[in-house]
């Protein structure tokens, strides 16, 4: 892997030479891949469409899992585990759901291999009577379980979640954003009434919004997806949409009100308090490793990734500047003591995660490695620091001074310990504030005709989104809108829950508008 | 599901009527299935060989994951994630490994479904050029990654772990013990020298031993497996073996020294300090959801499961005895306050996990539900308890008094809080001590000839194991021994690391013995 260290920075040039070989401005897509490689997040696996998630990328996912799992449990859900394989017959029961996924399902047809002409092949004698699909999502197989669990209104609600891998055979893949296999959590619930199921759908949407904003420091717009963007089988789909630095939208989490679609298909019936049989109302909701792609494109800069402290595997990394001299032992000891003291602290109601990087490499290489990985605070300690009781502190959210030099501050060791928690809170807040300002500044709600809409998206490379008024057409009328947008490489994102009421005409049909919908390019 | 409540116990009969419909003595296999059903651990999924792990079962797995993961990280390993699918060509490179797994692999051959005569079928147009195997274990695909990561001796060791699902198409399945899909962690490491790789192999075996004994309270015997029981491709395989209550052995974790088998197949080479190319020495080691089967058969009794506090999702469960009267609110408040106080405590260096069970069901039903689930401490609170400032405490490890009555102790609320941590520690220690005494008492090391061995295993229903001296035959000589044992439904378990040196003749060959090996029935 090419190492590209901006040595020039410490030589005092005013113009910054950044750590990555490509900037966001030059080529956003290439920059994204470069961040993933240089931050040791993930790599191609050699297996089509599947990636290897490396320790730093997986560590971020573990942090996301922990924080989101706490909220999923705090809202009354329990974790379970359901089979990876789903019999075809389960899918046949729900036509719309099948249509949505049939084109991209991995199908298991055999259960044994044999040698033939020196090559391994599926054994024709070991063909499955009924092929199995590798789950693309688990509504059908979890619905089958719910039908066993639910008999009476007393058994409701059922509030379940699973952390699992799923497979969708995407033809064009992109690391974290769209991979054949990905990791996610999928919540599945069953309720006695429409109101309860809808409350659940919106409650989990709000859990996702708070998670994205408070933990990932990624501002999002929560709202309902238009009909054409619904999950296959859903009555209503809600999403959180985040804006990437290139202005494109990333759907970062969805919550579906499924009505009785799957309770009909899987026979989830209960006896109500009046003794009558009713179909349960179900929901499902999911967040995946895609969120990591969102984190990269929200917070990354031309020096690599910047990880918000709450989801950083390590929040503070200490790099001892060793020179193969007698002083090395004292430096390491000094650092070890500091790590010990930092790890005693609590930030965000959890113990601080500080690391002493003792690997046998040059301090500058290690420093830039952690900058590219986006550790929130990097601390360097040399023999002069030890003598003076100091450390050199680099904050990843503000790497350079106005003159373009690296902003490395010398701070007394005790002051660092005193201020470390506040500093982590500042980094978290600063990353969110930056992204929030960018989002707010990049939604144009003044566009009222299609020419202006075309001009907005045609004018610049990074137009952001348009919030337009529309009549919420359905069926063929909606399809016409969707096709027109497709011609402009645009999509409908969602109808923001907090948008102002409509007060004008529909930008697409000219009729009276009923609500405002977000339009944008998207991942 | 049939509810079988031993109401008779509280009516004071001296002979205990247990909560399960079948006892261990009557039918151990049926008892095992009954515990799993009555403790809401898992159920058949309708998908061949795959189970649904329900919240209580999955909650135990989450506890195991947390505690084992801490140790895996404390010993320097990092978590990653590798693809679910493995191309056939990866397997072709290592013949012995293929032979071990080819007979039981799920094979993906298509990536799309189409409708045909109203049925879903794999699309013949969407056949994969190279079929993919659903990973039965990941040596090959992780080895391919290691070959990219390792260039120089400076890149070693590589210390990686992943938590994942794997699939082995077993024809005869049994929940938790042998399922087509199961959950596990698999550690994979690469080293510069044989010594380092062997140290790693034995270090992780010790991590497993300590985890099994200290966390799951399941005593085990750690040792090397004989040649015929090695992992396909391993140079040496070590295991921890636990004794179930029916005397059978359960292999509960394995650690493999793989030598250069996989570095040859996957080309994991490094330049050593002298500038020469060398093959890396690799290891792998795994613990799976099988451990939950071991927990059940180690600690379960005729009233259901008994979960050691360290791996119990909830350690203390409060059951308010409500009667639809005005007093109910005060009882619930009293319990909520108690749960709050208990959750402030630390046991085993973690916060105590106490739960208030507010479900709308009868207190007796709830009490027996938690007894069957094996919550370590169940506390009942009625209006008289509230008035007196007391609670009624049931310890799951000693459910009955000598006269057969339920041993429910009235304790002052403050005393409970005072003693809760000590009580949890006592339950943990008592479960281990019981199992340890059973294990120690059921290994016969006095058997020196095959007739005596036959007699030992033929004599009683629960013979335990025999520790016999042997000459450690190999190849065809070993095969002869294995076949003879097979005729007696016996297997070689392992050569205990802490066994006394051999000092007699080989029980199988009559030659001089070189070590002692465990013989037993097994799962």
TrEMBL record, chains A, B:
**Taxonomically, which superkingdom?**
Bacteria
The GO cellular component terms are: aminoacyl-tRNA synthetase multienzyme complex; cytoplasm
Q: Is-annotated flag, keyword Ligase?
A: yes
Q: Which Gene3D superfamilies match?
A: Anticodon-binding domain, Bira Bifunctional Protein, Domain 2, C-terminal domain of ProRS
Give yes or no: UniProt keyword Ligase.
yes
Question: Which InterPro entries does its entry note?
Answer: aa-tRNA-synt_IIb, aa-tRNA-synth_II, aa-tRNA-synth_II/BPL/LPL, Anticodon-bd, Anticodon-bd_dom_sf, Pro-tRNA-ligase_IIa_arc-type, Pro-tRNA_ligase_II_C, Pro-tRNA_synth_II
Top EC class, one word: ligase
Localization of this protein: Cytoplasm
EC number of the protein: 6.1.1.15
Instruction: Please classify the protein's predominant subcellular localization into one broad category.
Output: cytoplasm
Q: Which Pfam families match?
A: HGTP_anticodon (PF03129), tRNA-synt_2b (PF00587)
Catalytic reaction list:
tRNA(Pro) + L-proline + ATP = L-prolyl-tRNA(Pro) + AMP + diphosphate
CDD domains recorded? ProRS_core_arch_euk
List UniProt keywords, sorted A-Z: Aminoacyl-tRNA synthetase, ATP-binding, Cytoplasm, Ligase, Nucleotide-binding, Protein biosynthesis
Gene Ontology biological process terms, A to Z? prolyl-tRNA aminoacylation
What are the recorded GO MF terms, alphabetically?
A: ATP binding; proline-tRNA ligase activity
Residues annotated as domain Aminoacyl-transfer RNA synthetases class-II family profile: 43-308
PANTHER family, per the entry = BIFUNCTIONAL GLUTAMATE_PROLINE--TRNA LIGASE (PTHR43382:SF2), PROLYL-TRNA SYNTHETASE (PTHR43382)
Q: Which NCBIfam families match?
A: proS_fam_I (TIGR00408)
Q: How does it assemble?
A: Homodimer.
Q: What does this protein do?
A: Catalyzes the attachment of proline to tRNA(Pro) in a two-step reaction: proline is first activated by ATP to form Pro-AMP and then transferred to the acceptor end of tRNA(Pro).
Please state what the annotation says regarding this protein's domains.
Consists of three domains: the N-terminal catalytic domain, the anticodon-binding domain and the C-terminal extension.
What family does the Swiss-Prot or TrEMBL record give for this protein? Belongs to the class-II aminoacyl-tRNA synthetase family. ProS type 3 subfamily.
UniProt-recorded name of the protein: Proline--tRNA ligase
Q: Which organism is it from?
A: Sphingobium lactosutens DS20
